[in-house]
């Protein structure tokens, strides 16, 4: 059952609001956890480091269920659309949008890095850097990069469907899900309908399970923030604060200027849209992971007036193909490392970074330690930049990861709105009404009636 169809019309008379305790709001709980994590990290850092188990456990719970959810929503989105031509049309439009936005994001990272020059004056001697700090990141990067484009394309095809699900490789899960969904759409008749209904039912159960997991998000946020502050502190990061601050500014510029302009063209207010998603964005900010809010985001986009088939196809695909904030970080970090190590970059080097990043960024979501791994793969493709410079950004990756996850999520939500408007699958009147007058207890509606 669709969240949009099951929810009351936004124009209907609102029932009287029931007094809801402030502490019962997930948004409030996450904010309190953020603040408490900072306080614990500053006052009792040794104890705070031990709280990382909460963050690790929460992220493992999310990882456990993301692959099956992506499979179910993509299959249901394709099979439920009925018209495969429409599915293909939506997919092509989504990919065109993804590539344009990724290119813009990559270029923005380069431009801002050159305008500000965060690495100038650091004069880092690469012989003093600890190569052991890169550990498995470098090994994974060589595996990812080795073989070029051909190997990358072959890696999208899973050895078996179960292997892709077991390793939570989103690109491979997407490939199998699209193939399965198209085949199911072609398999007309009662048997095909039964399979579709079964996948719909399984997805509903998985969404319920994700709803239960998200309720412990405050513990995950508390553990993550306390560990980060306790482990690194603020003083130890002084040299790299300029990079962190610059990255946050770059993401803000991309969201407010680029995505804001795109949303205006779609006829939707970006600020109202962000306010509508504030609870999910807060969870992502605290956990540095957008996986935790996948079901809620999809249900809210459907409630906004976007057809379920479009949401079910664009959102999961965007998790691998539309990493806007990650793309900004990729080029910004490469130029920063070059500046910090005194490595001059030619125009050809920059074009090479841009081209390689367009490819390597596509597999980021399914790689452990993805940001560092993909960055290492990109550096390995540009011989003039010392790959050991990657060690410089390891200590601040978590702080950068918070903005990276939030920026990626906003980019995917905006992409869904834009593709839906482009395809004519967005009810703009409903969207404006929902954003102007959100229904009471929206979180409860989303949790009760998720869209499979």
Any descriptors?
452 residues; mainly alpha; Proton glutamate symport protein; globular; disordered N terminus
Describe, in plain words, how this protein is organized in 3D.
The protein is mostly helical and 452 residues long. The longest helix is centred in the first third of the chain and has 33 residues. It starts with a helix and ends with a helix. The N terminus is likely disordered.
How many domains comprise the coordinates? 1
Instruction: Specify the structural class.
Output: mainly alpha
Q: What would you give as the CATH superfamily?
A: Sodium:dicarboxylate symporter
* Secondary structure: number of strands: 0
Shape: globular
* CATH topology assignment: Proton glutamate symport protein
Biggest sheet statistics: none
Number of helices, counting only DSSP H or I runs of 4 residues or more: 23
Summarize the structure.
Helices cover 74% and strands 0% of the residues. It has 23 helices and no strands. The protein is globular and about 70 Å long.
Question: How is this fold's topology laid out?
Answer:
Elements: H1 3-6, H2 26-43, H3 45-50, H4 52-81, H5 84-116, H6 135-145, H7 148-156, H8 161-167, H9 170-186, H10 190-214, H11 217-232, H12 241-266, H13 270-276, H14 278-287, H15 294-304, H16 308-321, H17 324-340, H18 347-360, H19 370-380, H20 391-394, H21 397-423, H22 428-436, H23 442-448
């Amino acid at each position: 059952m669709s969240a949009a169809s099951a929810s009351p019309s936004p124009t209907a008379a609102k029932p009287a609001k029931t007094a809801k305790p402030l502490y019962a709001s997930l948004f409030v709980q996450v904010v309190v956890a953020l603040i408490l994590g900072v306080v614990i990290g500053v006052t009792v850092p040794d104890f705070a480091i031990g709280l990382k188990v909460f963050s690790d456990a929460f992220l493992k719970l999310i990882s456990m269920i993301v692959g099956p959810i992506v499979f179910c929503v993509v299959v249901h989105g394709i099979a439920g659309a009925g018209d495969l031509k429409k599915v293909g049309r939506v997919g092509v439009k989504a990919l065109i949008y993804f590539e344009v936005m990724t290119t813009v994001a990559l270029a923005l990272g380069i431009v801002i890095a050159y305008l500000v020059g965060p690495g100038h004056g650091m004069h880092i001697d690469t012989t003093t850097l600890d190569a052991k700090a890169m550990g498995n990141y470098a090994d994974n990067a060589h595996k990812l990069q080795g073989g070029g484009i051909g190997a990358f394309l072959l890696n999208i095809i899973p050895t078996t469907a179960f292997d892709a699900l077991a390793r939570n490789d989103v690109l491979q899960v997407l490939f199998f899900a699209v193939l399965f969904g198209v085949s199911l759409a072609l398999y007309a008749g009662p048997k095909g309908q039964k399979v579709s209904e079964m996948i719909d039912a399984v997805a509903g159960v998985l969404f319920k399970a994700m709803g239960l997991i998200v309720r412990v998000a405050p513990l995950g946020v508390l553990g993550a923030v306390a560990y980060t502050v306790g482990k690194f502190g603020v003083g130890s990061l002084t040299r790299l604060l300029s990079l962190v601050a610059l990255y946050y500014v770059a993401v803000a510029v991309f969201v407010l200027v680029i995505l804001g302009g795109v949303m205006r063209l779609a006829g939707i207010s970006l600020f109202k849209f962000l306010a509508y998603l504030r609870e999910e964005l807060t969870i992502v900010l605290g956990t540095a992971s957008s996986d935790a809010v996948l079901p809620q985001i999809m249900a809210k986009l459907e409630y906004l007036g976007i057809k379920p088939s479009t949401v079910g196809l664009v959102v999961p695909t965007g998790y691998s193909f539309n990493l806007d904030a990650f793309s900004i970080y990729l080029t910004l970090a490469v130029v920063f490392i070059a500046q910090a190590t005194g490595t001059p970059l030619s125009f050809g080097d920059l074009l090479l970074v841009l081209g390689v990043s367009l490819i390597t960024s596509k597999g980021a979501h399914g790689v452990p330690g993805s940001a560092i791994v993909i960055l290492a793969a990109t550096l390995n493709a540009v011989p003039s930049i010392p790959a050991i410079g990657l060690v410089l950004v390891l200590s601040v990756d978590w702080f950068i990861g918070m903005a990276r996850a939030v920026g990626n999520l906003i980019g995917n939500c905006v992409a869904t709105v834009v593709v839906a408007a482009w395809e004519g699958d967005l009810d703009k009147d409903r969207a404006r009404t929902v954003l102007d007058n959100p229904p009471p207890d929206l979180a409860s509606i989303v949790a009760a009636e998720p869209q499979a």
